[in-house]
Design a protein that fits this description.
Distance between the termini: 66 Å
Radius of gyration: 33 Å
Strand order of the largest sheet: 3-4-2-1-15-14
Structural class: alpha+beta
CATH architecture of the largest domain: 4-Layer Sandwich
Length: 727
């Protein structure tokens, strides 16, 4: 009971908004912005005109746990978002309302909330008042009603256009009196809806006497106009005067700063300021001084867009407060357009998983026994020598130049490397969980991202350079003794028993029980040594076609992983390519189509379309083209999608293409647009692979390719053959 009481006595915010359609991305972005600014506990939307499937993605974007929608035919006409930690019990809903109890029954602060959408047609507006009558008869709790009533209380709630019927307003006022509801009034602009000819206050919040006595210091705030022609309203539910405090913001380095010519000068100015104290203490102070200068510079240069956004919203507020004039509507639409442009610019600024554990000395000794002595006396002297400035500098400059340390605490990192001790300040880390799927159900569906201090990053990177071969040496040692068989791609090819990558590993072996037990022991030994445990839920095993189903299930059970037909995509690359390449690489086309559909070519200039095609649309296939020869027909399809986007084609209309794509792929100096001719670009990327085979013939891939495709010749003299490689 105590926890419930604390919940209800805290500030509780409710947003009500007639969004006039939630299908377009601009309205969704506006909703995200409103929720982030106000941090409400409940959100009631009307006229969403969205399918229930879309609501799941919208709910995830705005960070809510649950959604209830009132369906009308196949669309959702009204909905409520809520958080799981807020006790909300939904009673019933219709096409014009959603009714819920907020809080736990029996607690002091529980109340009833009704999100209302009034009937729009005048002749049927009595349906709204009858609905209020039905709901009022069921009220035994403090009651709050908010939403778009589609009616005004008096002539002061309307400006411009023909006068409203006195009888209509009288019916609304009488309904509030009969059902003991009181208008909460408003803070901010009076009018919440406007068109080219008029402005009206249709959106409001009403309360009964019980609710008002319980939450005496609550208020209804009219928020700035956004994508819809209705203003959102914010109901602050509070039993006592709100104590407003400003939360200090953490420093984040803005990547957009790097595009400004003065950024480097600001950093140099901060770094050159004189400091006193020990050497590493001076480093910490210099960083703090640089942060202050960057924030001051940001407020004078980049924060102008945020100020511009506030000025635009202020003008919209003033416009909604004034009496209607014919020119107001055009000014309002222009301000809304400028507001969305500012919002878009501000948006621009702004395999196997391992789990860590302890280390087992016995398992560590088993791996060390497999390591062959490869370190000479001179090499050992270099490894045991004190860490040099060049090593630390090399590790630092290998990091991404625009990724900000977070949180940014500085301490002597050379002591970390020499003594093995690290201060609590340097070891402090922000952990963020990123969803891998739409509806995560287990921890494996989330990707943890650690935002470490820059000092910790430098130390860990220097240490990682000296510890990289434990698992590889353990497998290689067992392979030399014949315990692990591995596979051969051809009789003369080298044996392959493992391939290690950054985010996963591939192990190859014979179909035998002993081999599976060996691999399982290898992984367990490595896990005990390094403290990194293999995520078996996301691991899988593939067998050749001549292995029976019973045998596959038996061996998969020993390994404790899932048996699959093929591994599918790894780092967005197909592992196995069959004869039908068009089907294998067909996933590239829907990915590009999805990107192009999300953009709106009608509102983009020619330069904007060119930038999006060059920098975004033609970028995803690059990694695949580095490894595989894509079918020419697929390259033509991808080019056709880009061409249609550039010339503004739509489903119902095909526009004239004034130039061929071949001419548009010419450099700008020759009269083209500099687009990529994908088939030629693909061949150029594969030529780089050929150059690597010629310049590094002792690499594993070069040895395998030579044994399979050019055993008695070289890469340059090899024939196509009956089964050529697709890479």
């Amino acid at each position: 009971m105590a926890s419930t009481f604390l919940f209800l006595m805290q500030a509780f915010k409710i947003i009500s908004w007639n969004c006039r359609g939630l299908n377009n991305t601009e309205t969704q972005d506006a909703l995200v912005s409103i929720v982030r600014q106000q941090n409400p506990s409940l959100v009631f939307l009307s006229e969403t005109l969205a399918s229930p499937d879309l609501l799941t993605s919208v709910r995830s974007r705005i960070g809510f746990d649950g959604v209830v929608c009132a369906l009308q035919e196949d669309d959702c006409c009204g909905l409520v978002f809520w958080h799981n930690e807020d006790p909300v019990l939904f009673r019933h809903y219709s096409a014009n309302h959603i009714d819920a109890e907020v809080g736990i029954l029996g607690s002091r602060g529980v109340f009833r909330f009704t999100g209302l959408y009034g009937v729009a047609t005048i002749m049927n507006r009595v349906i709204t008042w009858n609905l209020l009558c039905t709901l009022a008869a069921q009220v035994l709790l403090p009651w709050l009603v908010a939403g778009d009533f589609n009616e005004i209380l008096n002539h002061a709630d309307k400006s411009g256009g023909p006068p409203r019927s006195v009888a209509q307003m009288a019916l609304f006022r009488q309904a509030l009196v009969d059902y003991e509801l009181i208008d909460m009034g408003f803070v901010g602009p009076r009018f919440t809806w406007s068109n080219r000819f008029t402005e009206e206050r249709m959106d409001r919040a009403c309360q009964n006497v019980q609710w008002r006595e319980l939450y005496l210091f609550s208020r209804c705030i009219t928020l700035p106009l956004s994508r819809s022609d209705h203003c959102p309203i914010l109901i602050e539910v509070s039993p006592e005067p709100a104590i407003r405090t400003r939360t200090p913001k953490l420093f984040r380095f803005g990547e957009m700063w790097l595009q400004h010519m003065d950024c480097l000068n600001v950093v140099q100015q901060g770094w050159m300021l004189a400091t006193i104290g020990e050497l590493m203490m001076q480093v910490g102070r210099k960083i703090k001084q640089t942060v202050k200068l960057l924030l001051h510079w940001h407020s004078g240069v980049f924060q102008q867009r945020q100020t511009q956004m506030k000025l635009i919203q202020g003008k919209l507020d003033v416009l909604m407060k004034q009496s209607f004039e014919p020119g107001h509507f055009d000014v309002q639409k222009a301000l809304q357009f400028d507001s969305m442009n500012c919002f878009r610019l501000m948006k621009l600024i702004g395999g196997k998983d391992l789990e860590t554990g302890g280390s087992d000395p016995t398992a560590t000794e088993a791996i060390l026994e497999c390591l062959h002595p490869k370190v000479s006396t001179d090499m050992n002297d270099d490894l045991t020598a004190p860490y040099s400035d060049s090593e630390i500098k090399k590790a630092l400059f290998q990091m991404h130049p625009s990724k900000s340390p977070s949180p940014d605490g500085m301490s002597p990192f050379r002591e970390i490397l020499t003594t093995g001790q690290i201060s609590q300040e340097s070891n402090f880390t922000h952990l963020t969980l990123i969803q891998k799927v739409k509806e995560p159900k287990s921890v494996s569906d989330l990707r943890p991202i650690a935002l470490c201090n820059v000092v910790y990053k430098i130390a860990s990177k220097v240490l990682a350079k000296q510890v990289e071969e434990g698992l590889s040496e353990l497998i290689s040692s067992l392979a030399e003794h014949g315990v692990v068989k591995g596979i051969k791609m051809s009789p003369t090819a080298p044996t392959i028993h493992h391939l290690l990558f950054a985010v996963g590993s591939f192990l190859f072996g014979e179909v035998a029980v002993t081999e599976c037990h060996t691999f399982k022991n290898i992984l367990e030994t490595y896990a005990k040594t390094s403290g990194q445990h293999i995520n078996l839920q996301k691991s899988s095993v593939v067998f050749s076609g001549n292995v029976s189903l019973n045998k596959r299930n038996e061996l998969a059970a020993i390994l404790g992983v899932e048996c699959v037909k093929e591994h599918g995509l790894y780092l967005w690359l197909p592992i196995h390519v069959g004869q039908n390449k068009s089907d294998i690489f067909a996933y590239l086309k829907p990915r590009l189509t999805k990107k192009l559909i999300s953009w709106r070519p009608k509102i983009l200039s020619i330069g904007g379309k060119e930038l999006l095609i060059n920098m975004v649309a033609q970028t995803p296939p690059n990694y695949v083209m580095n490894c595989y020869a894509l079918p020419k027909s697929l390259c033509d399809d991808l080019q056709q999608l880009c061409c249609q986007f550039f010339w503004g084609n739509s489903d119902d209309r095909r526009r004239i293409h004034w130039r061929s794509w071949e001419r548009m792929c010419l450099p700008k100096e020759q009269g083209g647009m500099g687009f990529k001719y994908l088939h030629a670009y693909n061949l150029a990327m594969l030529a780089k692979q050929g150059w690597r085979l010629l310049t590094n013939p002792n690499s594993l891939v070069a040895q395998v390719f030579k044994a399979m495709y050019c055993l008695y010749g070289s890469f340059l003299t090899a024939d196509m053959g009956e089964r050529p490689s697709f890479s």
